[in-house]
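To: structure subgroup
Subject: Chain for Friday's discussion

All,

I'm putting the inputs and outputs inline so they're searchable in the archive.
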Amino acid sequence: MWRNCVRLARRGLGRGAVLRSDPTVSRCGVVRGLSPAAPCRSLWNSVTWFSQARQSKDYALPNSSWSQGMMDLYSRFLEMCKDGTWKRIPSYSNSIDHLPELLKLTSEKERKETRLFPRNTDMEGVGFEYAMFLNPSEKRMVCLFQPGPYLEGHPGFAHGGSTATIIDSTIGGCAIFVAGRVMTANLSINYRNPIPLGSVVLVDSKVDQVEGRKVFLSCQVRSIDGQMLHAEATALFIRLDSTKSLQQQMSCQ
């Protein structure tokens, strides 16, 4: 799974490529004029909704804190978006901004004081620096992750909780595009090697199986050269009733 991803990425742009220079690529890195293959249409439509959220700051765009390794990997995946195989996913500070208007509940449209945990600061480079790409046909989501100094656990390394957060966010994003509104029911992580602060890793998740409301997924976190396995995980997500709030669904149990 992961090695195929790296092999594809290495066919992309070379080191130091200029981002968004292609006129077919929009300001947010999404390729214009592409349409999905029929089997992937429902997933792709979800991505389109995601991309059309109200005009909020997109935190998944390159900034000055990104290392050259992060920039190179981002450029390569952006290049692979051009044929429609991959889709860049924008990232906002509020979880509600990621939902299309037709899926937002009335009460949610009025909530503006909350903030998505991985996007809890506007300071660049100190916390979670990441960008996600979706492959609808493979039901795969990858995340380019560069942990900042505010995520330290053991001196010099990212806290295990920050690794769990980025895994949960990546796997959860993958589940959303398959089943719509979901919530984590189980997340099991095996930590193999710590992640150095400031390094770049690739979080690679995929849907393994769907059974009714249950979505089963797996994930690996590796160094960008593929040689170091940092963590691997399995997860179970449950599809929610999109017409009711989570509080309403919990009160019925």
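Points worth raising on Friday:
Confidence is low (pLDDT under 50) at residues 10-44.
The first helix runs from residue 2 to 9.

D.
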